[in-house]
Every structure is written in structure tokens, then in C-alpha cells.
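Methods: holo model generation. Sequences were used as deposited, without trimming of termini or removal of tags, and paired with ligand SMILES retrieved from the corresponding compound records. Each pair was processed once, and we did not select among multiple samples. The sequence and flavin-adenine dinucleotide SMILES for this entry were:
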Amino acid sequence: MSAAVTVVGAGPAGLAAAIVLAKGGRDVELHEWHRHVGARFHGDFQGLENWSCDEDTLCELQSWGIDINFLAHPVRTGTGFDARGRRYEISARRPLYYLVERGGSVQSLEYGLLKQAEALGVRVHFGSRVRETEGETILAGGPRKADIIASGYVFETECEDGAYIAFDDRLAPRGYAYLLVHQGRGTIAACLFSGFKRQQEFVERTCDFFREKVGLVMRNEQAFGGYGNLRLPRSAVQGRHPVAGEHAGFQDALAGFGLRYSITSGALAAQSILENRSYEQLWR
Ligand SMILES: Cc1cc2nc3c(=O)[nH]c(=O)nc-3n(C[C@H](O)[C@H](O)[C@H](O)COP(=O)(O)OP(=O)(O)OC[C@H]3O[C@@H](n4cnc5c(N)ncnc54)[C@H](O)[C@@H]3O)c2cc1C
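and the model returned the structure below.
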């Protein structure tokens, strides 16, 4: 019997890799630095994008054997604002993206993936920071540095569901500001590609903007923030080990929608081990 595969990091990339490996009949030891999944996130809503491939994102996940046991609300309409505050309605027949929740709650993406991995027999070691690797290992430890930061609030609200984005350097230099409301809860943030030292100023401007434009009212707001890595990978192999997700630099370099890339690359890294194929060829 072959030895267990080690997976480093229980984010979407590492969890997807663990699920695909376990479904393929391999023993998996999954190590997560923090004491629970989703520690890097705060119950914020994110978009699992559905625009970069013809294949629907959720169908792609299911084709890897991943169940949709987490909140994945299809969003087909939204509102965009340009730098002059002009409003554009956006709609599509197929979902633009699926709204997911990040963090450790029972409806979050990572909690759902964790439960699937555990049900398949993956041994998950929390509070286990991997520093050295040996044997078959997939590295999925998330971003290595901060090229972009997103900062804002998660909150409760009476406002109707909606998805809003604004491209205006006064709100988010070289990036964008966004507001997502779903069933009485919301996420608002400025996603900055520069001007990091003034992030709080941009967050407050973003809140004022959406108060004025869409009548936003927030209750019980809690600050949140995070960062992402936009380095494009030349190679996604470190030593002999496949590197998945943002640890490899798999990201949407225009807007930071890295989730789908993370899940797909995690699954491909697992496939490369199961089928003894070149990961470099698979991800390219
Ligand atoms: C505020 C914010 C908003 C975002 N919004 C969107 C969005 O709307 N749509 C989208 O597609 N993307 C979005 N992203 C990007 C998306 O969250 C990431 O691309 C995605 O989480 C990357 O997944 P990952 O599994 O590669 O890494 P992570 O989610 O970072 O998971 C890596 C895990 O590895 C663990 N780890 C790290 N080092 C070790 C170690 N040595 N040993 C053990 N464990 C380790 C970490 O604790 C972490 O749990 C956003 C990012 C941020 C910060």
C-alpha cells in the first residue's frame, strides 16, 4: 500500500486536493497551521467566479467529485459605477458568479469542503504548521506576500440583496470597491492595488459612496481585511512538490478572483499524483 500524501494548508486549494486524493483511494494527512479552517477570513462574502470558462464553476467542482454542501448562491445581476458615479446595470443568463461565505461558519466554503474531506477519511491536523516536507506532498499554504489588499466591514442590514462594484481611484486606487448584500448580511470593501497605507480612508470613502448611491445602512459592522498575491507562476513545482492555489501565484491578476483557480489547481495537483502525470503540463 502506498504511503499517505501530505497536503499543506486547509484552504480551498488544499481541501480540494485532499478530497480528490481521498476519492482516488489515497490516504491523506492534511496539515493546517491554524486551529480551524477559514482563519484568514471573517464571514465575508466572496464571488466564486463563473466567467473565465465555458463550463459552469459548480459543474466543474462536481466533475472533480466535490459536492456543493456550502452556500453557493447564483448571482445573475449587479450594478457597476464608473469614476464619475454613473450607474450601469449588469445582467447575464448564466450566473456571473456564485456568492460564497468564507471563514469557519457551517455554511462557509471551507467548512463544507472540510466535512467532505473528513467523511472520506482525510486525517486533518489543526495547529500544525509544516516547515519541512518529505514524501509525496502538495503545498497549498496561501499567498506568500501582499500585492493587493481588501479591507472593509461585514455587517447586518435591512437592505435588499444586491451586488455592486465601483471603479474609482478615490475609493480604491487601481482596484475597485464592492458591496454584496445577501439575506440580511453584507460585505463592503475597498480592494486596493496601491495606496495601502491609506486603507482606512478608502474604506470610509467606500462606505460613504454606497450610502449615497444605494442607501446602504449597516448594523453591527465588524472590520475585516486580507491580502492576496498576484505573482504569475513560471513553475508551480517546488522541489518535487506540486504547488496549488495562491501559494503558486494562481490568481486572477486583474481583480483577485483567485478562488476558482485555487480549487482547480488543488484538484489538478491531486490528479498529477493519482495518475503520475506532470503537474506542470496539467495546470498549463
Ligand atoms: C478580503 C479578500 C476577498 C477576496 N475575495 C475574493 C472573491 O470575491 N473571489 C475570489 O475568487 N477570490 C477572492 N479572494 C481571493 C481568495 O480568497 C484566494 O484566492 C483563496 O482563498 C486562495 O485559496 P488557497 O487555498 O490557495 O489559500 P488560503 O485560502 O489562504 O488557504 C491557505 C491555508 O494554508 C494554511 N497554511 C499556510 N501555511 C501553512 C503551513 N506552513 N502549514 C500548514 N498550514 C499552512 C493557512 O492557514 C490557510 O488556512 C479574496 C481574498 C481576500 C483576502
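The chain has a mean pLDDT of 95.
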